Protein backbone atom coordinates (compact mmCIF):
# COMPACT_ATOMS: atom_id res chain seq x y z
CA UNK A 1 0.00 0.00 0.00
CA UNK A 2 2.85 2.38 0.82
CA UNK A 3 4.44 1.74 -2.58
CA UNK A 4 1.20 2.75 -4.27
CA UNK A 5 0.93 5.91 -2.17
CA UNK A 6 4.59 6.69 -2.82
CA UNK A 7 4.03 6.29 -6.58
CA UNK A 8 0.93 8.51 -6.48
CA UNK A 9 2.77 11.16 -4.48
CA UNK A 10 6.08 11.15 -6.32
CA UNK A 11 5.53 9.91 -9.86
CA UNK A 12 1.86 10.19 -10.89
CA UNK A 13 1.95 13.45 -12.83
CA UNK A 14 5.26 12.66 -14.49
CA UNK A 15 4.04 9.30 -15.79
CA UNK A 16 0.72 10.71 -16.97
CA UNK A 17 2.62 13.39 -18.89
CA UNK A 18 5.02 10.82 -20.37
CA UNK A 19 2.13 8.60 -21.47
CA UNK A 20 0.15 11.49 -22.95
CA UNK A 21 3.17 12.92 -24.78
CA UNK A 22 4.05 9.48 -26.17
CA UNK A 23 0.47 8.87 -27.25
CA UNK A 24 0.33 12.25 -29.01
CA UNK A 25 3.54 11.41 -30.87
CA UNK A 26 2.24 7.99 -31.90
CA UNK A 27 -1.16 9.26 -33.04
CA UNK A 28 0.30 12.13 -35.06
CA UNK A 29 3.01 9.92 -36.57
CA UNK A 30 0.35 7.43 -37.59
CA UNK A 31 -1.64 10.27 -39.15
CA UNK A 32 1.40 11.43 -41.15
CA UNK A 33 2.05 7.88 -42.38
CA UNK A 34 -1.59 7.45 -43.36
CA UNK A 35 -1.72 10.80 -45.14
CA UNK A 36 1.55 10.73 -47.08
CA UNK A 37 2.09 7.02 -47.70
CA UNK A 38 -1.45 5.66 -47.99
CA UNK A 39 -3.10 8.93 -49.14
CA UNK A 40 -5.89 8.43 -46.62
CA UNK A 41 -6.32 10.84 -43.74
CA UNK A 42 -7.69 9.90 -40.34
CA UNK A 43 -10.54 12.15 -39.30
CA UNK A 44 -10.09 11.69 -35.58
CA UNK A 45 -6.32 11.89 -35.05
CA UNK A 46 -5.94 15.67 -34.76
CA UNK A 47 -8.90 15.88 -32.42
CA UNK A 48 -7.54 13.13 -30.19
CA UNK A 49 -4.07 14.73 -30.17
CA UNK A 50 -5.59 18.12 -29.32
CA UNK A 51 -7.57 16.75 -26.38
CA UNK A 52 -4.58 14.77 -25.10
CA UNK A 53 -2.52 17.96 -25.34
CA UNK A 54 -5.11 19.82 -23.26
CA UNK A 55 -4.86 17.13 -20.58
CA UNK A 56 -1.05 17.16 -20.85
CA UNK A 57 -0.94 20.90 -20.19
CA UNK A 58 -3.16 20.76 -17.12
CA UNK A 59 -1.44 17.72 -15.61
CA UNK A 60 1.85 19.48 -16.39
CA UNK A 61 0.71 22.42 -14.27
CA UNK A 62 0.47 20.06 -11.32
CA UNK A 63 3.88 18.56 -12.08
CA UNK A 64 5.36 22.06 -12.30
CA UNK A 65 3.91 22.84 -8.87
CA UNK A 66 5.40 19.64 -7.48
CA UNK A 67 8.93 20.33 -8.71
CA UNK A 68 8.54 24.08 -8.09
CA UNK A 69 9.51 25.01 -11.61
CA UNK A 70 6.71 27.35 -12.58
CA UNK A 71 7.64 30.68 -14.03
CA UNK A 72 8.62 33.06 -11.27
CA UNK A 73 10.21 36.45 -11.23
CA UNK A 74 13.32 35.71 -9.19
CA UNK A 75 14.50 39.30 -9.49
CA UNK A 76 11.40 40.33 -7.52
CA UNK A 77 12.33 37.90 -4.75
CA UNK A 78 15.83 39.37 -4.50
CA UNK A 79 14.41 42.85 -3.90
CA UNK A 80 13.54 41.71 -0.38
CA UNK A 81 15.94 41.10 2.49
CA UNK A 82 17.10 37.49 2.75
CA UNK A 83 15.12 36.98 5.95
CA UNK A 84 11.82 37.86 4.22
CA UNK A 85 12.32 35.73 1.09
CA UNK A 86 10.88 32.49 2.51
CA UNK A 87 7.73 34.39 3.52
CA UNK A 88 7.41 35.85 0.02
CA UNK A 89 7.69 32.33 -1.44
CA UNK A 90 4.93 31.14 0.91
CA UNK A 91 2.78 34.13 -0.04
CA UNK A 92 3.28 33.28 -3.72
CA UNK A 93 2.20 29.69 -3.08
CA UNK A 94 -0.87 30.86 -1.17
CA UNK A 95 -1.86 33.20 -4.01
CA UNK A 96 -1.31 30.38 -6.52
CA UNK A 97 -3.52 28.15 -4.38
CA UNK A 98 -6.28 30.78 -4.37
CA UNK A 99 -6.04 30.98 -8.17
CA UNK A 100 -6.14 27.17 -8.48
CA UNK A 101 -9.26 26.98 -6.30
CA UNK A 102 -10.92 29.68 -8.42
CA UNK A 103 -10.15 27.70 -11.61
CA UNK A 104 -11.57 24.54 -10.03
CA UNK A 105 -14.74 26.36 -9.00
CA UNK A 106 -15.29 28.00 -12.40
CA UNK A 107 -14.28 24.84 -14.25
CA UNK A 108 -16.84 22.81 -12.33
CA UNK A 109 -19.57 25.13 -13.61
CA UNK A 110 -18.37 24.53 -17.17
CA UNK A 111 -18.39 20.75 -16.66
CA UNK A 112 -21.91 20.89 -15.26
CA UNK A 113 -23.03 22.88 -18.30
CA UNK A 114 -21.47 20.32 -20.62
CA UNK A 115 -23.17 17.50 -18.72
CA UNK A 116 -26.56 19.20 -19.11
CA UNK A 117 -26.05 20.06 -22.78
CA UNK A 118 -24.57 16.69 -23.67
CA UNK A 119 -22.25 18.13 -26.34
CA UNK A 120 -20.11 15.61 -28.22
CA UNK A 121 -16.83 16.20 -30.02
CA UNK A 122 -17.20 16.44 -33.80
CA UNK A 123 -14.97 13.60 -34.99
CA UNK A 124 -14.73 11.11 -32.13
CA UNK A 125 -18.15 11.74 -30.59
CA UNK A 126 -16.78 11.73 -27.03
CA UNK A 127 -18.60 13.78 -24.38
CA UNK A 128 -17.03 17.23 -24.16
CA UNK A 129 -17.30 17.25 -20.37
CA UNK A 130 -14.29 14.90 -20.40
CA UNK A 131 -12.20 17.60 -22.07
CA UNK A 132 -13.59 20.30 -19.78
CA UNK A 133 -12.67 18.17 -16.75
CA UNK A 134 -8.93 18.64 -17.47
CA UNK A 135 -8.57 22.03 -15.70
CA UNK A 136 -10.37 20.69 -12.63
CA UNK A 137 -8.13 17.63 -12.39
CA UNK A 138 -4.96 19.56 -13.20
CA UNK A 139 -5.59 22.41 -10.79
CA UNK A 140 -6.95 19.97 -8.18
CA UNK A 141 -3.65 18.10 -8.26
CA UNK A 142 -1.78 21.42 -8.34
CA UNK A 143 -3.69 22.51 -5.21
CA UNK A 144 -2.49 19.40 -3.41
CA UNK A 145 1.09 20.11 -4.53
CA UNK A 146 0.83 23.76 -3.51
CA UNK A 147 -0.43 22.77 -0.05
CA UNK A 148 2.48 20.33 0.24
CA UNK A 149 4.85 23.15 -0.77
CA UNK A 150 3.37 25.56 1.75
CA UNK A 151 3.74 22.97 4.52
CA UNK A 152 7.31 22.23 3.39
CA UNK A 153 8.27 25.91 3.45
CA UNK A 154 6.61 26.54 6.82
CA UNK A 155 8.43 23.55 8.35
CA UNK A 156 11.74 24.89 7.09
CA UNK A 157 11.13 28.44 8.31
CA UNK A 158 12.07 27.45 11.84
CA UNK A 159 15.40 25.82 11.03
CA UNK A 160 16.34 28.38 8.38
CA UNK A 161 16.97 25.65 5.84
CA UNK A 162 15.27 24.90 2.61
CA UNK A 163 15.86 26.40 -0.78
CA UNK A 164 12.68 28.21 -1.86
CA UNK A 165 13.14 26.67 -5.32
CA UNK A 166 13.92 23.12 -4.21
CA UNK A 167 11.67 20.22 -5.14
CA UNK A 168 9.37 19.12 -2.34
CA UNK A 169 10.89 16.13 -0.59
CA UNK A 170 8.31 13.81 0.84
TrEMBL record:
Entry's Gene Ontology molecular function annotations: transmembrane transporter activity
Membrane topology: Multi-pass membrane protein
Domain Tripartite ATP-independent periplasmic transporters DctQ component as annotated: residue spans: 26-154
Keyword entries, A-Z: Cell inner membrane, Cell membrane, Membrane, Transmembrane, Transmembrane helix, Transport
Residues passing through the membrane, by range: 12-36, 48-65, 86-108, 128-147
Domain of life: Bacteria
One matching Pfam family: DctQ
Annotated InterPro entries: DctQ, TRAP_DctQ
Gene Ontology cellular component annotations, sorted alphabetically: plasma membrane
Subcellular location: Cell inner membrane
Subunit structure comment from the entry: The complex comprises the extracytoplasmic solute receptor protein and the two transmembrane proteins.
Primary role: Part of the tripartite ATP-independent periplasmic (TRAP) transport system.
Family the entry assigns: Belongs to the TRAP transporter small permease family.
Record-given protein name: TRAP transporter small permease protein
Amino acid sequence: MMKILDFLNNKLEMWICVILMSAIGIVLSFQVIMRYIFHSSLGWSEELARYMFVWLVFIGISYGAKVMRHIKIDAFLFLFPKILRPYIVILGDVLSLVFAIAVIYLGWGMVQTQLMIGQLSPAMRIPMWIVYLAPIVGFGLASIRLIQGIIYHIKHLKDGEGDPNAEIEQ
